[in-house]
Design goal:
The complex is a heterodimer of chains A (179) and B (350). Chain A is mainly α and 179 residues long. Chain A contains 9 helices and no strands. In chain A, helix 1 runs parallel beside helix 3, helix 5 crosses helix 8 and helix 6 packs across helix 8. Classes of the chains: A mainly alpha (179), B alpha+beta (350).
Chain lengths: 179, 350
Amino acid sequence: MFRRHYPRVLAFVSRRTAQSQAHDVVADTFATAWRHFARLPAEPLPWLYRVARNSLANQERAARRQARLFDRIAGGGVPPAPDHAVSVVADAGLREALGRLSRMDREALLLIGWEGLDHDAAAHVLGCTAVAFKVRVHRARRRLARLLAAADQDQAPPSPPPPPPYELHNAASTRGKSA
Amino acid sequence: MTDQDAMTRLAAANPVPDAAVRDSAASPRALLLQRQVLAQPRRRPAIAPRWRYGLVPVAAAAVALAGYAVVHQAAPSRPPAPVVASRATPQSILAQAAAQAEHEGRRGQFVHATGAVARIVHLGPGTGYDVIRVDSVQSVQPADGRPGEGWLTIGEQGSSVRPLTAADAAAYAADGSPGPAALPRDGAQTLHPDLAGDQAYAGVLGDLPDDPARTGAAMLAWLAEAGLGTPADPQGWLFRTGTTLLDTFTDVAAGTDRAKIYRMLAGLAGVRTLAAEADPLGRPARALAYTAPTPRHGLVEWQVYLGPDSDRITYTQAVIRQPGPANAGVPAGAVQYSTAVTAVTWSDKP
């Protein structure tokens, strides 16, 4: 079980947190799996992903507590850390579109697009029914497509500005002269 | 941009391609983690199926025979064991088992058990039909609560499928008589399907009090402390959980801990003995039962059979006394699942 699923769990976690913390989360995930070995389903990968998500959430909560503590100590505001999965996306338009999705919508799409899970397995990871997941992912896909289209439009290279009047005049003069 | 284009673009932006981690399980870091995890004490005393492939099939014939017997017992054509109190009381049977567990001599470092499990599986579209799936079981566990890794396989030495009733037989044939490989292998592929919606007990058996009057309360307190609530029927939960902790296939408890659980079971209300002096395979046995309603599977009677001269559980089955919403097509008296232990040996090799 460990040998079969370690790479995919490591990839899952690495896509969602910094490399320095990923191995701790993976270790926590497999230690939990060992403690609950009797409850592991025949196909444990979605179960492992779910445990890893919980571990990541715990880690995020701890980081937020630490940030609040820093905030109190420093007396200043600490900007919230962006979602790691969004920040590591190289495609700027996609990064912006993902950032505008709700966390659950984003996670639903990532489970399909990056982890390659089917709807049933992904629903198990998110702790919802397959039907609810299907509806969520359908809507999220449409939102992502709309946001991507909008983001692409905003980032499209601007059309060349019309030449200033004097250039037109000069060109016309030139053409007129050459003619 | 279409939805599909968006998903294609998302997939292409995957920051950690699978190829980048494909060989990571063999990395020194992964191997170290594996050793560290396996070195931790296993808090759960029961071990679920760990699918292993590549074992030499040595017990196929014995398992097939056991499976055949299990299937025939599971079919409702045979009337279920009558619920009549036998001469022995549950307390006397369980006290005897506790004494045997406590004084069980050391016979080897590992317990090897073989047998079969059977369960009803609902198939097909629409109202569908029911079949009985029977799988071989093999397990090796460290004996006497020794730390270490055990393993258990289900179906590796053979599996079979047959319709539950005559009506199911027609639907089964019309559906192309699917074999074991065609049946869904979902999370229900466990030794003891959870019919009652029980929370699993994962406390340390050695930490439970020796006083039988306090053992069950401590197990329930563990549930509450773990945030798992209190079962609607605490006596039923203790019976099912206790007998699962004593399961022969997944036995990893020390004799003293087994004795503790047997004594806890002896103090439960609602446990009774069955008149049958043999298990469904015809072997001499002492049988205990507990009946309780479940939310989805109706009224269920959990039966546990102990060998006559040992504290080992040799057979368990869940008999449907009145079907519920999840098994509406199952006739009363059918066996929702059963486990049969056909051989137990000890050795110093896993």
